[in-house]
Amino acid sequence: MTETKIEESSARSSLEGAFLKHLSSSLPDSKAHLIFWPLTLVGLALDLWSKKAVFDWLGNQGNVSIINGCLRLVKALNNGAAFGILAGKPYFLTAISVIALVVVLGVFLFSGTHNKLAHVALGLFTAGICGNLYDRIFNNGLVRDFIDVYYRDYHWPAFNAADSLLCIGVGLLIISTFSTERKQGKHAPKRISKPFVSASFEYDAFVKGIVSGKIKPATVKKEQDDKGPLTIYDFPKFKCQVHAHFEDDQREVIGRCQIKSYSGQFMDFVDNYALSMLRHYSEDTKASHSNFN
Question: Which of 279, 266, 291 has the alpha carbon at shortest distance from 193?
Fold first, then answer.
């Protein structure tokens, strides 16, 4: 009974440790913060300054042409969203803006992405949200727009610097998403079509066993290959090994971790929580004495 409680306590501690490591590895690093926050502050300052400067410069003038037949500066107050949607509902639009801001900050802080382009996009997106949110709160729910793009009698809805930052941010997010998927697809190994190790091998059960602490590596060995530091976790009972590449304190790179059978077959190993658990063993000197009970 005592041994069972000790094992349960040890498994719980290991699981908690793995969770904390996984959480910390998902947080943005210092480089990400140096990209995100300066862009947010500079973008917000640019938006607020441009609104005040243009509105003060125009004064009582209706508009000023910048490029004849194409671009002019105007003074426009918008009490709705883009294209005048939800006009006259300032409180609702303010609430939507706050929710959007929280979501974007959550994505930046907890998504675990290390894509610099995504950090740039999120910073611009945050600046755009904050710029228009400032107007909704401190300008009686009216957003100041001043850029009028037109051709003959057709006018695109007036917009401001914050709107431009939002559009650029969305575009960069789309580009970063496609570039990340292409990169992962390029490095990800192909899955095998025939049974792996044996017909009784169950990937999900294997992963759950690692996460719960019931399945532990018999040995942990560190080597070096052409991709960098390689950690090999050996599981004799399952006649396989897990080959994992870790990049210092960063999150594991999906597509570079594999389960490799003793016969030479391999398949993807993409469960980040289980990988965090294995990484815990790589730092645990007692890992080589673990059993499979």
Answer: 266
| pLDDT tens-place string over residues 141-192 | 999 999 999 998 999 999 999 999 999 999 999 998 887 666 555 544 444 4
163 belongs to the catalytic site: yes
pLDDT digits (tens, 9 = 90+) for 106-116: 999 988 888 89
Residue in the structure block whose two tokens are 């802080």: 109
Helix (H, G, I), strand (E, B) or coil at 104: helix
User: Among residues 47, 135, 145, 271, which one is catalytic?
Assistant: 145
Instruction: List the structure tokens of 207.
Output: 């992963």
Supply the mean pLDDT for the chain: 80
d(CA 250, CA 25): 5
CA 174-128-120 angle, to 5 degrees, is 45
Note every long-range contact of 55-62, with CB atoms under 8 Å and residues 24 or more positions apart, other chains counting: 55/144, 55/146, 58/146
User: DSSP labels for 29-40?
Assistant: -HHHHHHHHHHH
Nearest to 280 by CA among 224, 205, 211: 211
Angle at 199 between CA 194 and CA 202, to 5 degrees: 100
- Given the residues 47, 135, 148, 163, select the one marked as catalytic: 163
Q: SS3 letters for 123-186?
A: HHHHHHHHHHHHHHHHCCCCEEEEEEEEECCEECCCECHHHHHHHHHHHHHHHHHHHHHHHHHH
**Rounded Cα distance, 212 and 232, in Å:** 20
